[in-house]
Amino acid sequence: MSVRAQTLIWLAQRASAAVLALCVMVHLATMIYAVKSGLSAAEILGRTRGNYAWFGFYALFVLAVAVHAPIGLRTVIAESFGWRGTVLDALTVATGIALALWGMRAVLGVFV
Amino acid sequence: MSNEKPAATGAGSGASRAALNVRVWRGAGEGSFQTYEVPRQESQTVLDVVTHIQRVIDPSLSYRFACRVGVCGSCAMNVNGKARWTCRTHVEKVAADGNLEIAPLSNLPVIKDLVTDMKEFFDKWARARGRFAGARTRDDDFARVMPDSPQRRNVDAGIECIGCGACYSACDVVQSNPAYLGPAALNRAWTLHNDVRDVMRVERLASVAGDAGCHACHTHTSCSERCPKQISPTLGIAGLKRAAAVAALSGEI
């Protein structure tokens, strides 16, 4: 991976961290509201199904996770096990794709 | 020189007020701590202690020093687990209980006893393009650098580095990522990045960016904590991160 690419993924991780900070706060507030209000699963689904605002919010959340986590994991693996190079970079991309797919599956599960 | 012999290793930690109990690393990669009893003196520095051991107790002890006044940066060692310049470190300050443990700097190969091989440390300065590159000739007028300009202030904040290696020894990232350029080399690059006369800005940013450069820093600030000159390499590294990120976005690097 070129130095420019390494720099850009560093930037992507910082930018996604900023998005995550906001998303986590909104998500926690939503969860606390849902629990405190005693909403049932059916009531929650009634509010999320077909709601493009919630879909957009959680799609953004998933995208930020899919960008942020694999880049951090790449650094943790490199520093902990000395594993660096193309294979690790490929694993990083694969992890990002997997997180995005699993995350979007969950988002679609409460949207459709 | 007297014929005093060093006390046996593990001679206990109880030090009297008149004597220091000093454990010193002996050997290279393979080695162990050996214990010596050193008389306490007023205003005694850790370098004084090491010098006493070498000159009075055990002449085979190897260590490095030159100026003894905090200028040359050659006498840095781990003192009670922390990297310090030994010539300006008073025993009273770091070993009030009379117990001292002196070891070579971390993250560098040990040649013998307290002497480390600084080659990789200074090679990284070269890799970070830590050399001024100007374009003016002797026929040109002097460059005018305003003392209160932001760039000059950034240079002032980092320029007093004496290359002792204390920051490098304290850096966790160097430990886990041996290719990492380290705080001293990056601090040097930052001072040159802010030198308005320098013409190697883009090439230098390309050299210090990425996984082995400034973007590997975890901002633990151990380097800033341990720098005997109160420089904050962390701040300079943060500046390099931003500058390199902008350069990457604009396609300069």
Key words describing this protein structure:
heterodimer, A: 112 residues, mainly alpha, 3 helical TM bundles of succinate and fumarate reductases, 4 helices, 0% strand, elongated, B: 253 residues, alpha+beta, Ubiquitin-like (UB roll), Fumarate Reductase Iron-sulfur Protein, Chain B, domain 2, 2 domains, two-stranded antiparallel ribbon, 10 helices, 7 strands
How is this structure best described in words?
The complex is a heterodimer of chains A (112) and B (253). Chain A is built from four helices and no strands. Chain A is mainly alpha-helical. Chain A has one domain (3-111): 3 helical TM bundles of succinate and fumarate reductases. In chain A, helix 1 (3-36) crosses helix 3 and helix 3 (52-81) packs antiparallel against helix 4. The termini of chain A are far apart. The model of chain A has no long low-confidence stretch (mean pLDDT 97). Chain B has 253 residues and is α+β, with helices and mostly antiparallel strands. Chain B has two domains: 19-116, Roll (Ubiquitin-like (UB roll)); 119-249, Alpha-helical ferredoxin (Fumarate Reductase Iron-sulfur Protein, Chain B, domain 2, Orthogonal Bundle), CATH 1.10.1060. Chain B has helices spanning 46-57, 91-94, 119-127, 150-158, 166-170, 172-176, 183-193, 201-208, 222-226, 233-249, and strands at residues 19-27, 31-39, 76-79, 82-85, 99-103, 110-112, 115-116. In chain B, the strands form two sheets. Chain B has a five-stranded mixed β-sheet. Chain B has a two-stranded antiparallel ribbon with strand order 6-7. In chain B, strand 6 (110-112) and strand 7 form a beta hairpin. In chain B, helix 3 (119-127) packs parallel to helix 7 (183-193), helix 7 (183-193) packs across helix 10 (233-249) and helix 8 crosses helix 10 (233-249). The longest helix of chain B is centred in the C-terminal third of the chain and has 17 residues, at 233-249. Chain B is elongated. Mean pLDDT of chain B is 94; it is low at 1-13. The interface between A and B is medium-sized, with 13 and 18 residues.
